[in-house]
């Protein structure tokens, strides 16, 4: 349908959609940067979605039972901001639109969930929004089963572009959605045939509809500019039995001279182009001005869900006090009161029995205590359940016939898993954790970064955390991964040494409200190193004195995880030779760095040789050691300098020199 | 077909296939670890492939025109080792099979390309082998067009498992292969319905045949145990016009009590199970023993391609001296002699004109000089061609109608691009480089790691390397990525400051034979910092004195890339205040670390305050600074401590305090 016919046949719709387009043109021009074409192309779909289908209340953007809207093609962020402004979200007055992409504004270049309640999620790295939408829809299914449809019953809508569909994570996501028959998930594909480099056909000739159908989706299509056709497709999609994919045929940068070209993807800032485009739209208002009747119509859309929201408030209020309190606790991401006592019980038991277990098994023991008292947890693994030790007996399996199940078989999809966990955490009401081998943190790295950036307290259970993995060899042995994870802002990387430290790490991870955690866990058995019970969570200090020197302190050994055992053995040998040696366990470098300087100095005082021991690369440890700069100093590192190898684990530790003997020799050499 | 029928109907085939199965059972039992089920399930397919189709010469495993065989399901490595041993590869006597997964053997837990010529590629991280196969097949198409079918004309065969197909990278790979109509690529899917967690249907219900067809593949299927049916499918696949996908219905751990179960995926080590299985096979030889007739039959297969190889040797010898020398130079990964002079010309021109350009543009200027004299380069970008500045005018576009084109539009597929580049580098004869935004190094991280592990000199062109990217905001601004990349063993991370340094970095990257390189390049314009021409490659030293202190040296500023400008301005201000200040440019920390201590001390002598400046996290810099350990010291860091934000770049540098003013203030504070 051409613009003229659209204007004539659907005049009210046209004005509303053009309000989105005009704000996009104005904001991008003011910022002199941004992406105009996507909001201009998808304005009709978004208008119909918001006017006819989305259940939301612009004045209560964080209402838990709202429909979710995810713009996976996050570069088209002006679509989100225009919708928030037009529908009357109080955080988005016109000044926010005027300050698009400026310091301190809520209208960042890509949507950022932490800047405003009305922004469901950060998007921009392509494919992530689609994959998080799958997590949102999984959360909705899970919570609907737990709380009943009176409390949770909504749709998740996602707009995805060609980029989202080309990124590999999309396949992991659509496979998960198909397998779990997520009928409340509706993905609208902005099928405009254009990428940055040119036509999509330059790089891709995939039949996307056939691809989604192959993954078990119900597939629809529509003219993405015809409001009646869009409405028909959305109505059909909502009634589908599986997840729904709507191929919306659109024109990027509709109505401009850049329409249907890759130029239209980016910032349209030319004054004449903008004027001509607005003229083609029949849009005569000044920049950043919306005609009163159009604004009023949009605000009515924003208020459309207010009654539904109030009715929901009443239904929530009608719950028993206990149930309501539980709902609020879980949605506010507060840990339950019983968590602390459950952890304490594990710790007490541990110092009594001193079990020699791998920390991945220790993690399972903690989960066996935690999962029963923390029903908001939802666990899973990327097809390594038995190795990651992530499934406890009480969880049940989440699938279409048991939506109450709390364990997800994610398949061999680390990236899809991590993104789904982000979606679940964004939804609220659930505490997702998921496992894989630590080396395959690589596969989910883009989603891990989003957990940190978005402040999502997702827990990553990364087992087989070093060459201790043994025979599988260097492709499966993390070496640089602790450094990579520690370098990421707003992450806590725990590498516990035994069951007690593992319990304490889980307690912190499950108490976090805005920070994701990594648990780096051993494949191999490790001795208990904490001999006395204390209610205090020592891991919360990041590093602490595990064993003190008996005589004059000449050496401090700092270690994490499986190498704490090495440090303790080295200490024994050094002490036997009359060399006073302190052992510092450092399960979380980030938390140690957050302690005050006095504490850090107490744990790591001057005047002794220091050696850090960790079966990974040195990077990250230099902060606590004398590096090149302190050449006069006496510090050392026992760890890896390159990739691992395939052999039994004990042999590898020997060959790579990560042993107590090597540590003792280094200490003596440094003491001179 | 049941085992009994197979034995009776195809007795010769059966014995050959069971030789693979028996060696697998024996090796896994001896190692007490490994994966038995996959080689047992795919032994029939592999036997038919090697006997009837693969063109190779076991005595000349690195013959450039051999068919390639990639085991994407790398955990089934015993399939590869059994084939190499049985066909008579001189590097794989039976001792190697006996030492499966042991220190120093070539038979690592997963195949490692650097351990033996006969191992085409490292695999194990699932999906990588499939995606590298696409690169191998692209290289074959490209080289066939360049050299003619008499010199390069072969197939790439790949065995992929369910895990490979669930990993997202598989979608990127099959999309690329479909678009490029790679008719010499044949993927055999080990369709056994089993993953580690149980049945595939627990986590996936994708119709894989429909999915591949949707991506433009020709789809076939066969009974993966019936040699006649396998042969029929392979014959048809070779004749296909597009890439071919053969769904091979198989039984994991065929013939054992673990058949068709997830138990069968792992190590079958129970003595009775092994004895019973061999009995079912009718296999009566002792462990690690192959009946002479069976070994002879396999060795005949190994010798089958010797004539073809000899004929090829003659065709190569018949080339003109110049052409043959060029072929050998390109396949040996030697840079052409003209590279050095091309780089020198760029450098000379640069110090004359002192252009103020972004280093991404500088990189393009270097490529404009390099690509014409280095026809083995093959460039590309993951849909950011204009931003990554990776396409020079002379390249032409690689696609089905122009196989000689040297530029690949990879689409929005960073992971698929990186894996394809690994495949091209593995093939030999090409020098792949490819671009994306540096932040999206995350998306290709598993393949980057493989470049390093496999010793592949792939060049990653990562532009927009800091908050200097500006308005797109924190999802697009790398912060921890330099640390992540530097932490990876066997990588060179270059962050050049201007055109001269960019040219020198490219020279090193293109001269490398066994190390991948990252070029971290700015979006924003940067002033020229190298004022005098020298033929010497200063970047090769990693770090060097760019500007010396005029008076007494009180401060040393160390910076990389865009922050060298900040350091130079800060030096000017400090010198104006009488504070002697040296500026060290540190474009490659790895190369600096490789210099001898005397040089490092010369560049970074004691006795002055040091400040490192880089718009990323501090991790990695501590080695050259006094960290916590040197509390008495006086060193500082000017950089990022968290994620970035959306705003114009200049504002971001101001807000995050990465300025010359902040540097000057820090220096003065540290001087006290």
Q: Termini distance of chain A?
A: 84 Å
What's the main sheet of chain A like?
A: 6 strands, parallel
β-sheet strand percentage of chain A:
5-15%
Which CATH class of the largest domain in chain A?
A: Alpha Beta
CATH T-level fold name of the largest domain in chain A: Rossmann fold
Number of domains of chain A: 3
Q: What are the segments of chain A in which pLDDT stays under 50 over at least 5 consecutive residues?
A: none
How many helices of chain A? The count is: 26
> What is the largest interface, and how many residues per chain?
A-B, 123 and 122 residues
The count of β-strands of chain A is 20
Under the CATH scheme, the architecture of the largest domain in chain A is: 3-Layer(aba) Sandwich
Structural class of chain A: alpha/beta
The best one-word shape of chain A is: elongated
Verbal overview:
Chains A, B: Belongs to the transketolase family. Chains A, B: This is Transketolase. Chains A, B: Its EC number is 2.2.1.1. Chains A, B: It catalyses: D-sedoheptulose 7-phosphate + D-glyceraldehyde 3-phosphate = aldehydo-D-ribose 5-phosphate + D-xylulose 5-phosphate. Chains A, B: The active site is at 414 (proton donor). The structure is a homodimer of 672-residue chains. With 672 residues, chain A is α/β, with parallel strands linked by helices. Chain A has three domains: 3-310, Rossmann fold, CATH 3.40.50; 337-520, Thiamin diphosphate (ThDP)-binding fold, Pyr/PP domains (Rossmann fold, 3-Layer(aba) Sandwich); 542-671, Rossmann fold (3-Layer(aba) Sandwich). The first copy, chain A, contains 26 helices and 20 strands. In chain A, the strands form five sheets. Chain A has a six-stranded parallel β-sheet with strand order 10-9-11-12-14-13, sandwiched between helices. In chain A, strand 17 (553-559), helix 22 and strand 18 form a beta-alpha-beta unit. Chain A is elongated and about 95 Å long. The N and C termini of chain A lie far apart (84 Å). The mean pLDDT of chain A is 97. At the A-B interface, helix 7, helix 8, helix 9, helix 17 and helix 19 of A face helix 7, helix 8, helix 9, helix 17 and helix 19 of B.
């Amino acid at each position: 349908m051409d613009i003229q016919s659209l204007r004539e046949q659907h005049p009210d719709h046209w004005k509303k959609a053009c309000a989105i387009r005009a704000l996009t043109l104005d904001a991008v021009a003011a910022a002199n940067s941004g992406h105009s074409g996507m909001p201009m192309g998808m304005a009709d779909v978004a208008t119909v979605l918001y006017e006819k289908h989305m259940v939301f209340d612009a004045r209560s953007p964080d209402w838990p039972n709202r429909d979710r809207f995810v713009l996976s093609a996050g570069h088209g962020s002006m679509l989100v901001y225009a919708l928030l402004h037009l529908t009357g979200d109080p955080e988005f007055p016109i000044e926010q639109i005027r300050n698009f992409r400026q310091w301190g504004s809520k209208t960042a270049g890509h949507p950022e969930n932490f800047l405003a309640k009305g922004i469901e999620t950060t998007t921009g790295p392509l494919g992530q929004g689609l994959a998080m939408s799958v997590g949102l829809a999984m959360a909705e299914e899970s919570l609907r089963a737990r709380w009943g449809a009176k409390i949770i019953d909504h749709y998740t809508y996602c707009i995805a572009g060609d980029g989202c569909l080309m990124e590999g994570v999309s396949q992991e996501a659509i496979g998960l959605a198909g397998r779990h028959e997520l009928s409340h998930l509706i993905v609208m594909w902005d099928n405009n045939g254009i990428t940055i480099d040119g036509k999509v056909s330059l790089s891709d000739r995939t039949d996307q509809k056939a691809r989604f159908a192959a993954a078990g989706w119900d597939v629809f299509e529509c003219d993405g500019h015809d409001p009646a056709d869009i409405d028909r497709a959305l109505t059909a999609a909502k009634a589908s039995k599986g997840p729904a994919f709507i191929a919306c045929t659109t024109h990027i940068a509709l109505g401009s001279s850049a329409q249907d070209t890759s130029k239209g993807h980016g910032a349209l800032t030319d004054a004449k182009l903008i004027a001509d485009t607005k003229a083609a739209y029949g849009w005569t208002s000044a920049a950043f001005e919306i005609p009163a009747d159009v604004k009023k119509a949009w605000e009515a859309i924003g208020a459309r869900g207010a009654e539904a929201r109030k009715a929901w408030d009443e239904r929530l209020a009608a719950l028993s006090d206990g149930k309501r309190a539980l709902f609020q606790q879980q949605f506010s991401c507060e840990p339950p009161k019983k968590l602390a006592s459950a952890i304490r019980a594990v710790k007490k038991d541990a110092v009594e029995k001193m079990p020699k277990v791998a920390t991945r098994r220790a993690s399972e023991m903690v989960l066996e205590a935690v999962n029963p008292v923390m029903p908001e947890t939802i666990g899973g693994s990327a097809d390594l359940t038995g190795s990651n030790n992530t499934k406890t007996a009480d969880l049940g399996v989440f699938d279409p016939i048991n939506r109450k199940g709390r364990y997800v078989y994610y398949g061999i999809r680390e990236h899809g898993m991590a993104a789904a966990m982000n979606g679940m955490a964004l939804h609220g009401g659930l505490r997702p954790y998921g496992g894989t081998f630590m080396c395959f943190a690589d596969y989910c790295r883009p989603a891990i970064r989003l957990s940190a950036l978005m402040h999502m307290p997702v827990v990553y259970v990364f087992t087989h955390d070093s060459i201790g993995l043994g025979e599988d060899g260097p492709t499966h042995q993390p070496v640089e991964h602790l450094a990579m994870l520690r370098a990421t802002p707003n992450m806590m990387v725990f590498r516990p040494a035994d069951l007690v430290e593992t319990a304490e790490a889980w307690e912190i991870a499950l108490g976090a409200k805005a920070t994701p955690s990594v648990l780096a866990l051993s494949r191999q058995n490790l001795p208990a190193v904490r001999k006395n019970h204390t209610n205090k969570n020592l891991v919360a200090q990041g590093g602490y004195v595990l064993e003190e020197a008996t005589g004059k302190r000449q050496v401090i050994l700092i270690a994490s995880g499986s190498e704490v055992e090495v440090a303790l053995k080295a200490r024994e040998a050094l002490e036997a030779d009359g060399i006073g040696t302190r052992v510092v366990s450092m399960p979380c470098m980030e938390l140690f760095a957050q302690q005050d300087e006095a504490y850090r100095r107490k744990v790591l005082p001057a005047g002794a040789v220091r050696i850090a021991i960790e079966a990974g690369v040195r990077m990250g440890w230099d902060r606590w050691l004398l590096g090149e700069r302190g050449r006069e100093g006496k510090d050392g590192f026992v760890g890896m300098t390159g990739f691992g190898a395939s052999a039994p684990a004990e042999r590898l530790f020997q060959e790579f020199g990560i042993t107590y003997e090597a540590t003792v020799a280094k200490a003596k050499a440094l003491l001179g």
